[in-house]
Amino acid sequence: MRRKIGTIAIAAVIGFSGFFGSGLSEKAFANEMQQRLNEVKDQQSSNESTRTEKQNEVNQLQAEQAEIRAEVERLDKAVAETKNKISTKKVEIDTTRKEIEKLKEEIEVLKERIAKRNELLEDRARSFQQGGGAVNYLDVLLGAQSFGDFLDRVGAVATIVQADRDILQAHQKDMEDLEAKELEMREKLASLEQQLVDLEKMEVELKNQIAEKDKLLAELKKKEQATMHEIHELENEAEVLASQEKAIRAEIKAAEERAKREAEERARQEAERKRLEEQRKREHEAAVAAAKEKGEPEPEPEHISSPPPPVSSGSWTRPTTGSVTSGFGTRWGSQHYGIDVGKNGRSGNVPVVAAGSGTVFQAYYSSSYGNVVFITHYIDGQTWTTVYAHLESLGVSAGQSVSKGQFIGNMGNTGFSTGPHLHFELHKGSWNGSKSNAVNPASYINF
């Protein structure tokens, strides 16, 4: 197919966890989800347009096939009519040949009649010659016994002469009729045979046309089937895109609900912090007043711990509160493999939490890192390692499983440190001494 939906499918099915784990802010995540939704809707629009285009192609192919089928039907009828004409011509030819055979028989009869007439004329001629020609007729007339007998003899002679003349004329007519019938039959037979040749040629041409139409029809049917296959693929794609749209909309809604809950939780924590601060002030003021009445020194103000950072959605969350005092990259001529978050003059304890769910594989004191915790994480088949250094105290031990946002210690100033802060590292893979797997935490977590 022209469009590939595999990438979108992965994004819709397993990509959300990648978005959550990327450290995007809720706003950035919402923008990313909206962008994905727009991409899906664009593909849905393109899919629908292409399906319409392909359906129009199918309709056109079906219309062309209908026209060709109608043409083939017309040609089939023409072939049938031609076959009937061929059969008729063959019957006519057979009839004509039979007529010719019959004519031959009649000719034989005529020949016999002519032969007999020739024989009669020859006999009469011999009789005429033997009698001395015309004298015989004169002798016949002079031999009459009376005038009446003379007239009878004259009539008889005239009749004989006329009969001879009639025989000659009939002989001539029969010969002319014979020749005319022979010529007519030959012409008719030749015409019929030529018509038969023409009809047989027409039948071959019609069958060739049908074969061409059948070939074209098969090609159009093949195109129709291929286009229908594309339409089915587009329909499957449309179903996938619809599922993706539904999943993205559900995730956007869930993200909005999470953002709302987290905002409410932050507001609650801030209200609780203010309440505790007000309570601490009142208690301190009461203690100061009581000390003055007793003449005792004014008590030191009580340090209240800072609230832990809110747990964000996705695979990662911010490990502590406070501003970044030193970023990832080159610093003071050397590479800084993590991010420093300062205490910034805050009193009391500043909690540090696990940036993601995983297993603590080291929790000890290092001369450089101070109190440090190493946690291994497995996210979408990828191994990650997080490092939390310079902690004031350790709240977890090696081998312990922790969940995202779980307390692991307080921000401190232990080890090689110039002030209270958290040094946080993120490694894409296992931790090693050269820190070759270190990546910028800010690329994955919103600081």
From TrEMBL:
Q: Where is the M23ase beta-sheet core domain?
A: 335-438
Any one GO molecular function term: metalloendopeptidase activity
User: Which part of the chain is the Peptidoglycan hydrolase PcsB coiled-coil domain?
Assistant: 107-181
What keywords are assigned to this protein?
Signal
Feature: compositional bias, Basic and acidic residues: 263-303
- Do the record's keywords include Signal? yes
Query: Which parts of the sequence are annotated with region: Disordered?
Result: 39-58, 263-329
Q: Where is the composition biased (Polar residues)?
A: 39-49, 314-328
Q: Which Pfam families does this one have? A: CC_PcsB (PF24568), Peptidase_M23 (PF01551)
Q: Which Gene3D superfamilies match?
A: 6.10.250.3150, Glucose Permease (Domain IIA)
Q: Note the PANTHER family from the entry.
A: MUREIN HYDROLASE ACTIVATOR ENVC, PEPTIDASE-RELATED
Q: What protein is this chain from?
A: Peptidoglycan DD-metalloendopeptidase family protein
Q: Give the organism the record lists.
A: Sutcliffiella horikoshii
